[in-house]
């Protein structure tokens, strides 16, 4: 309950402007009660990061476990990412807050936590890329480098989507990215299987596809 409330306060006010008293007031509890669970505001902010990223990682792990072939896993990871980001779009500023605070903080706790999370998520992508190569669906590529790049692009697409006012489909943007990057790595085997779909997506892009925002439905 504390963390869920803190997410909204930090997202709306920003880390530096948010006060422990703001969170206590929103919960209708004494500020001192918060300190029974968290040593200070930074500790609570770290708790928010852990909570949010644990949800994200758990959803990604389920996507991997529910699918067996690497192509289905790749699609499932994209679907899961889109669903998570769409659900938490209003909290997007927190991503920037987390990264900025990690670089500014005198404590290494935040930076270590972010790096550990990024490493675990990259391992999922690396696993899929390695499986693709083993089945001769991808050309030879350094799987770890590929996964790190993909993760960075994923974060960037999400932030750009938020900055652009969610004016296009996030799912279509991710599919377009998948087509652009994937088309360069596909072997002839995979290319023959998905050629029509990829060519259509490359020609269509994502900015001009029909799209209804969730808040409009």
Describe the model.
- The protein has helices spanning 2-13, 20-27, 31-34, 41-65, 70-87, 93-104, 109-134, 143-163, 170-185, 188-204.
- The chain has 217 residues and is mainly alpha-helical.
- The protein has one domain: Orthogonal Bundle (Tetracycline Repressor, domain 2), CATH 1.10.357.
- Helix 4 (41-65) packs parallel to helix 7, helix 5 packs antiparallel against helix 7 (109-134) and helix 7 packs across helix 8 (143-163).
- 24% of the residues are buried.
Question: What's this entry about, in short?
Answer:
The relative contact order is 0.09. The mean pLDDT is 87. The chain has one domain: Tetracycline Repressor, domain 2, CATH 1.10.357.
Secondary structure class reads mainly alpha
Main sheet overview: none
Shape assignment = elongated
**What's the number of extended β-strand segments?**
0
The CATH class designation is Mainly Alpha
| Arithmetic mean of pLDDT | 87
Helix content: over 70%
State the helix count.
Answer: 10
CATH architecture, please? Answer: Orthogonal Bundle
State the end-to-end distance: 29 Å
CATH superfamily: Tetracycline Repressor, domain 2
Order of helices and strands: HHHHHHHHHH
* Overall tally of structural domains: 1
Note poorly predicted spans.
none
Q: What fold name stands as the CATH topology?
A: Tetracycline Repressor, domain 2
Radius of gyration: 20 Å
Strand content: under 5%
